[in-house]
Amino acid sequence: MKTLKPQKTLVEQAYEAILDAICDGSLAPNERLTQDELAARLNVSRQPVLSALGLLRQQGFVIEHGRRGVAVAPVDPARFDAIYQIRSALEPLAARLATGRMTPELIERGRRIVAQGRKVAAAGDAKATLQADVDFHMFIYEASGNPLIAEAMQLHWQHLRRAMGEVLRRPRMTQQVWREHAAVMEAMADGDAKTSARLLQEHVNVARVRVGDELAAGAETRSAA
Description:
Elements: H1 10-23, E1 32-33, H2 35-42, H3 46-58, E2 62-64, E3 70-72, H4 77-99, H5 104-122, H6 126-143, H7 147-167, H8 171-189, H9 193-224
Antiparallel strand pairs: 1-3, 2-3
Helix pairs in contact: 1-3, 2-3, 4-6, 4-7, 4-8, 4-9, 5-6, 5-8, 6-7, 7-9, 8-9
């Protein structure tokens, strides 16, 4: 008998499509969202869209706008700062745990992710670079063997995608990001848990500044407009 693969519901598909559009900037901060328009664009009825928007509102991606309306939530610097506080605690732990569990297969997989990240960054593909960045950190969470780390960070990474997308559009910054990723990966491959944790801690701290500066610059631009 073949293993059954559950299909995603229309609500799940609508949720993912709207969330992706918010995170990649296709739906801009403060842009008003209407159920009818979204349903037409997604080729579904209004009900899945309504349920998806309800979930996105609970998660802080959309906010109420006027009577019975919603809009894309503005980027919240305080939320990002809080997320980086969590990352600075969890990610060094994940790196230490992952280092102790490295196998030839995991090392090869991690290096492939780094190579792919460098490739798409050099090509200037911002969307693919961002996905590779997410893939690298998720790889470390998974390799740690502690499922609660990935579970705790999954939703937070959706919020991070919104600001990091701007940072990773800058080629010089992306090159530095992947040099940092490569250094972490090689420390894990060498079995040096102390160094891998330290390097990832430094990477998260620097990323916090990069994203914070980008958010501040965006706020100044909006104020001047």
